[in-house]
Amino acid sequence: MRLLIVGTLKGQLSIATKMAVDKGAAVTNAEDIETALRVMRAKGADLVMVDVAIDVRGLVKAFADEMIAVPVVACGTSNDARAAVAAIHAGAKEYIPLPPDPELIAAVLAAVANDAKQMIYRDEAMARVVQLANQVAPSDASILITGESGTGKEVLARYLHGKSNRANQPFIAVNCAAIPDNLLESELFGHEKGAFTGAVARRIGKFEEANGGTLLLDEISEMDIRLQSKLLRAIQERIIDRVGGTRPVPVDIRILATSNRTLAEEVRKGTFREDLLYRLNVVNLKLPPLRDRPADVLELAAHFARKYSEANGMAPRQLSADARRQLTVARWPGNVRELENTIHRAVLLSSGPEIGVDAIRTPDGGRLDERRGSDAVAAQAADIAEAMTRSLVGRTVADVERDLILDTLGHTLGNRTHAANILGISIRTLRNKLNQYADEGLAIPPPPQGEARYEQRYG
After folding, report:
1. Which CDD domains does its entry note (predicted)?
2. Is the bond preceding 99 in cis, omega lying within 30 degrees of 0?
């Protein structure tokens, strides 16, 4: 694990540094935000501890501006409660009083390490994905993680890294959708001084930053196809070229990639290289949407309730029976991300010892179970369409056609002419099909009396 400590605070952070080293962390020190940025650009870190005397909000913003995702923990004297609250509001995940307690330092380091390894699940559908992930995690094979937005693709990627032989090396994530195309190449491969306007110094790219560890290419389907060819070479050869560079740089990394699109379809559209898909998709881990793993809803909800109660300095609160029922019947189109935000909101809105149903609210303040008429109709239609689609999977066209014809005939009370019109086929075709089904031993609804006489006369 790599730790960056920003600030001095009368030398007390040096005590924290020694404790962290004793716990097996590789520690780098920086006196100010600019130095911290240089360290993050060059080496990266898994955790940043910052003196509250430093502008914590400015540090968090500087990291965000450069697309650097790293948890920040603030440190200050134990009696500086106002600074502690301000640091949390500024974006710090935790506050540690100084002088530091060895057990507290160990707990913080362990929490950061465990975040990468923790998977919360109970549903059998998710258990199968995790089982496969455990099988492939020790290898260096490239893995493609797919699923709808909010299903937890990056969480699974971090889990894979934590279970791999590279767990003690860097895990670097790049959101390909969040970085403009003209900057993504430099972000991935780095650049030399003077490579383009504004390149005032050499910058190490994410490939080099992840050297020895794992590189996650998040939402890779958003990458411009022209950059995909350079990425393919880097993955195949394990060699990169910095923008403006003249010498190839070898790298030793494992590649993970995520996408909420079907990449085979993107290949057919011509927006994604087929050879790159084959290179990335050695193993595909497909995360099911939350609506398809109902047993996970309450497990995740309880986890988020504990997490956000602790984060907001509140006593742990349980979900009431009514709240649990409401959570289990919701469809969760935003998946785990939507559930997490809902529970975070519920923790803040609840006032009693339990999180009641009144605290389970939508972002605009409405009750989760209060849908407008059109929304309810749309949701019901979606449920019906989804159920119908699932009922067709695994069946032959002939079976589906037979059931459709017989169901339609039953709906028309045996009227062949009416059924043929509904089905859009000729009456002769319908009769031939019914004769075939009768020969197979199926019960065929008889025609109404008038039509039966017509059949007998003109059949």
Report:
1. AAA
2. yes
What residues contact residue 125 under an 8 Å CB cut-off, 6+ apart?
288, 292, 293
Given a contact cutoff of 8 angstroms between Cβ atoms, the answer to whether 105 and 16 are in contact is yes
Burial per residue of 182-201, b for 16 or more beta-carbon CB atoms within 10 angstroms, e otherwise: eebbbbbbbbbeebeeeeee
pTM for the predicted model, two decimal places: 0.61
Tell whether domain 138-286 is in CATH 2.60.40.420: no
Return the amino acid letter for 258: T
pLDDT in tens, 324-338: 999 998 989 999 999
Q: How far apart, in Å, are the Cα atoms of 368 and each of 299, 305, 361?
A: 19, 17, 5
Q: Domain 394-458: which topology?
A: Arc Repressor Mutant, subunit A (1.10.10)
At the topology level, CATH places domain 2-114 in: Rossmann fold (3.40.50)
Tokens of 331: 């469809």
> What architecture is the 291-372 domain classified under in CATH?
Orthogonal Bundle (1.10)
Any idea where the domains of the chain sit in the sequence?
2-114, 138-286, 291-372, 394-458
Question: In angstroms, rounded to a whole number, what is the distance separating the alpha carbons of residues 12 and 17?
Answer: 9
One-letter identity of residue 267: V
Q: Rounded to an integer, what distance in angstroms lies between the CA atom of residue 21 and that of residue 449?
A: 91
Instruction: Identify the three-state secondary structure at position 75.
Output: strand
